[in-house]
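Need residues for this backbone.
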């Protein structure tokens, strides 16, 4: 997980899970399956050092200057409009955009990527940290967060099904198991994603097209796991995007993965496994695999959709909305969702 600033860190501090978190060096390793080339990209280095060392094979100093195009960006531009013709498009701009925005650079808003670069890369190595849980996200994020909010009398496992209005104000919230009557002094924050929000408020104009994120987890034998010599590897010219090594597992993340929605799990595992064998230059077998696909992982973060949310935010409501999608200056991430929660509380006060 990449984090732009301190919100995620502060969140872990609040729920008491800092000890379960580790910060990895921000050096990213890449493997280009077509050219059989490997290289390392050091976010830990200063921007000047990266430009002078040109880490990607067969590139020159001038190729890295494409980053400067993100200083001034128009609202309507996509990442591809800006750097589609760059010599480091395939090796840098495409994997970065997919990882950060879960959207192909051909559709991704250049303004959002520009905002990310301005709070990370342009601010130096301290702002380009990679966080990983020591064990798993359940222990680092989910379990501590649930036990923290359980102390605040939260009801879980109840979907909001309908909203009743009286004289233009919300009078009742109809959940699966109960109906809550709303007094005029009550405050409401809706922290649900646009797709479900639209079921409750069909008149809202919100993005309706989404991108899948696909994760493939392989369990390996102890001897084979050591063939994966780097903790994080970015794959180029492959179906796989990023691979993470942890204990006896490798986990592959594929963003913008709608094309896999109709494929069966075994077929996906075979495609991805072949690419992993190419990396280790050896035909090995996995012990077992598991596929997790989230079909509505994030909405497509295109200039058009960002504008739709910007217009939505200009409207005045007697209640507040939270969720990653409401932070339309940042991509849909944990960071954005934490910031949106803080903003929602500020708006209520
Ligand atoms: C596979 C995957 C990998 C990701 N990787 C990263 C990463 O590495 N780094 C990163 O920063 N971000 C990552 N993200 C994005 C990140 O998970 C989201 O940005 C973040 O979880 C959004 O939080 P949220 O609270 O806005 O929305 P959600 O986490 O979607 O929470 C919304 C909640 O509302 C509930 N809900 C929906 N409808 C109703 C209803 N009608 N009534 C009551 N409750 C309802 C849902 O059940 C859900 O619990 C990833 C996402 C996916 C799917």
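Answer:
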């Amino acid at each position: 997980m990449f984090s732009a600033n301190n919100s995620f860190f502060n969140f872990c501090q609040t729920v008491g899970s800092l000890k379960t978190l580790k910060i990895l060096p921000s050096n990213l390793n890449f493997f280009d399956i077509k050219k059989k080339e490997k290289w390392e990209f050091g976010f830990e280095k200063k921007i000047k050092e990266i430009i002078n060392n040109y880490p990607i094979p067969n590139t020159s100093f001038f190729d890295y200057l494409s980053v400067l195009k993100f200083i001034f960006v128009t609202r309507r531009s996509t990442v591809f409009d800006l750097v589609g013709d760059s010599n480091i498009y395939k090796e840098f701009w495409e994997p970065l955009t997919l990882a950060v925005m879960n959207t192909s650079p051909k559709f991704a808003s250049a303004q959002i990527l520009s905002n990310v670069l301005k709070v990370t890369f342009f601010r130096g190595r301290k702002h380009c940290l990679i966080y990983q849980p020591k064990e798993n996200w359940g222990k680092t994020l989910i379990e501590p967060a649930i036990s923290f909010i359980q102390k605040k009398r939260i009801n879980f496992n109840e979907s909001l099904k309908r909203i009743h209005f009286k004289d233009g104000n919300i009078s009742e919230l109809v959940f699966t198991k109960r109906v809550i009557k709303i007094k005029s002094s009550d405050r409401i924050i809706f922290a649900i994603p646009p797709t479900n929000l639209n079921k409750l408020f069909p008149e809202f104009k919100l993005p309706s097209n989404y991108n899948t994120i696909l994760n493939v987890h392989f369990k390996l034998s102890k001897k084979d796991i050591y063939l994966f010599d780097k903790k994080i590897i970015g794959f180029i010219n492959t179906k796989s995007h990023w691979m993470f090594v942890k204990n006896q597992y490798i986990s592959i993340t594929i963003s913008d993965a709608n094309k896999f929605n109709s494929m069966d799990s075994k077929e996906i595992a075979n495609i991805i496994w072949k690419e992993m064998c190419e990396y280790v230059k050896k035909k090995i077998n996995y012990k077992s695999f598991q596929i997790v696909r989230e079909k509505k992982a994030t909405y497509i973060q295109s200039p058009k959709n960002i504008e739709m949310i910007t217009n939505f935010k200009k409207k005045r409501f007697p209640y507040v909305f939270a969720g990653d999608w409401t932070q339309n200056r940042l991509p849909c991430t944990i960071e954005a969702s934490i910031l949106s929660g803080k903003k929602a509380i500020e708006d209520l006060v």
